[in-house]
Amino acid sequence: MDAILRSKAEALIKEQITNTIMQDTPKNSIVMQLGKRLPNMTSQQTRVPVLSMLPMAYWVNGDTGYKQTSQQAWENVYIDAGELAVIVPIPEAVVNDASFDIVGEVIPRVQEEIGAKVDQAILFGINRPSNWQSDIFTMARQAGNNVTGGITYDTLLGTDGLFSKVEQAGYAVDGVIAAMTGRAAMRGIKDDAGRPIFVTDMQGATRYALDGAPMYFPENGSFDVSVAQMIAGNWGQLVYSIRQDIQTKILTEAVIQNPATKEIAYNLAQQDMIALRVTFRMGWALPNPATRLNPDRANVPFAYIEAGTPVTDYAATFTVQDSESTAVKGATVNVNGAILKTNESGKAVFHLRNGVYPYNVKASGYRTMTGEVEISGSTKDVTVKFPAKAE
């Protein structure tokens, strides 16, 4: 018998389109959530005075003993604004024919990407602006605050574990960041009776914490498991400032060039296109002021657990001398935020990944010396010679 089947009436059947796009919720920057936000920057650079030398007190010997003198000192740490930006071209016909607000859908995803880029640059130095100081990983590595052996109870809370490294710098851990895979590692840690340590209620929502410090597992893809498995620290010591909050602009008559070749990729007016431009500017710093437990500022309030294969770095040995080539002991060598004092031989050794690092060298009575050291797959020896002492 004859009938009008679906195959014959397919052209008349309207497809239903849901009014919701299935997608994950955009994730924000975890570093900006945990760090301390300073007032917005009013220029490209902000100066933060930091305590760099603590005063000393001395016992007086006897009733007529002489009281000794001491001093206190400060130095400037600078926050330089770096810029993140992107342009998203869209044909006007696509915008007009779409059933959804394309621009409205793009903006949250660009904001998520900005948050991820901020986290990667500050935590691991990935594509960081050249005027920013070294990342948290590099600073902690230089301070010797790296722990090997994977995620175990001892590497986390043991005598020389993750938390202990931060405490040796004079700070308490107030937050821990780990990759999503770290959750499974935490669940796998058991006590002597074989009971999971970090789960007390198997039926309720469990918030991961270590010794009272909350744990965070970034979902924006920013945590680099090839560099570290976990980072702990006192995040209140990390400061950041925004020069220009996220701004969006619709371009309609611009020309878009290929950044590499400078060739014209799109002519918006001629090709009936629009382009969404998003910009964001911010800077950050780890001032690391002198404390009684960290008077030389050589330590930092962050530590990390090494990746399965530790990152390769190279020794950069600084030798500081006076004008007569005599070793200068106690000179302060600052390599892009990492600080060491020279030893009896006038040497200070830094452990750096490949890259270019600005440095300055200071010593009482001498003019500050500055320069750059480039690490490219091998060790480096840098000799810094002070001119004659200032009168």
Automatic annotation (TrEMBL):
Organism: Candidatus Ruthenibacterium merdavium
The protein's name: Phage major capsid protein
Domain of life where this protein originates: Bacteria
Family annotation (Gene3D superfamilies): Carboxypeptidase-like, regulatory domain (2.60.40.1120), hypothetical protein PF0899 domain (3.30.2320.10), Major capsid protein gp5 (3.30.2400.10)
Cell compartments where the protein resides: Virion
InterPro entries found in the cross-reference section: CarboxyPept-like_regulatory (IPR008969), Phage_capsid (IPR024455), Phage_capsid-like_C (IPR054612)
Phylogenetic classification of the source organism: Bacteria, Bacillati, Bacillota, Clostridia, Eubacteriales
Chief site of localization: virion
NCBIfam families assigned to the protein according to its UniProt record, in alphabetical order: major_cap_HK97
Domain Phage capsid-like C-terminal: 12-289
